[in-house]
Specification:
Blueprint lengths: L12 E7 L8 E7 L25 H14 L2 E7 L1 H7 L1 H14 L7 E5 L10 E5 L7 H24 L2 H6 L1 H4 L5 H10 L10 H6 L5 H13 L3
Parallel strand pairs: 1-4, 4-5
Antiparallel strand pairs: 1-2, 2-3
Length: 228
């Protein structure tokens, strides 16, 4: 059963979740949502909160509907992203954290507590934070943040495809959204990479002839073995 609050102590809580972390292509998006702890503050008395769940378990139509509801109902909400270049430069986990911090920076309310989907957090301005594995199946604000992130990323992908239809024709982005499906991998093999492909991710790294993480580690270990 979903919870509206982590603690009933009056602190302002924000839920954080991401979308696109496992993609081979494109941006990683993050949502941040602050809900009131009083159902009377929701336009429908909180009735539609029962519809919130992991964004991946919904149809596009349902996500779009809830995206609008979250914007109408939240005390505050924001979306931020990390580019593919940032993911490659920082690694995907740290890029995720950087995007989450930017999403928090964009919120116009003072924060008392962060609820983060997952098992890792990079401290932010000394604010209390709790990492929650499968948090989008437990806390309404995290589930709502995931919906904002997913819808925002999907809309960005669609805008990229509309501006450059070859992205869909070659890689099937309208359906796979940049994830490593068979169609996407076939497109990589036939057409190579685009500027928004994540070069540090396995299939792309292999296509470029770069060593895998395992190979880099083994190479480093061999170097260490020869050191006195």
């Amino acid at each position: 059963m979903y919870k509206l609050r982590y603690k009933e102590d009056g602190e302002i809580e924000v839920g954080l979740d991401e979308a696109g972390r496992g993609c081979l292509w494109g941006r990683l998006y993050v949502g941040a949502v602050v809900f009131s702890d009083c159902l009377d503050d929701f336009p429908d008395g909180g009735a539609m909160l029962s519809e919130l769940r992991d964004s991946k378990q919904m149809t596009k139509k349902r996500r779009d509907l809830l995206y609008d509801y979250i914007h109408e109902s939240a005390v505050a909400c924001s979306v931020a992203y990390a580019t593919a270049e940032e993911v490659d430069r920082e690694n995907v986990l740290q890029a995720d954290m950087s995007a989450m911090h930017r999403a928090l920076d964009a919120l116009p309310v003072p924060l008392g507590r962060c609820l983060v989907d997952g098992d890792y957090w990079r401290p932010y301005k000394g604010i209390e934070a709790h990492t929650i594995v499968d948090g989008d199946a437990q806390y309404l604000a995290i589930a709502a943040a995931g919906i904002l992130a997913k819808v925002s990323r999907d809309r960005w992908v669609q805008s990229m495809v509309e501006a450059n239809p070859s992205l869909d024709a070659r890689y099937g982005f309208s359906s796979n959204m940049g994830y490593g499906t068979a169609a996407h991998l076939a497109g990589l093999a036939s057409h190579g990479i685009t500027p928004d492909h994540r070069r540090t991710f396995g299939p792309v790294r292999t296509l470029l002839g770069l060593p895998s993480k395992k190979e880099k580690t083994e190479k480093w270990n061999k170097k260490v073995d020869y050191c006195d």
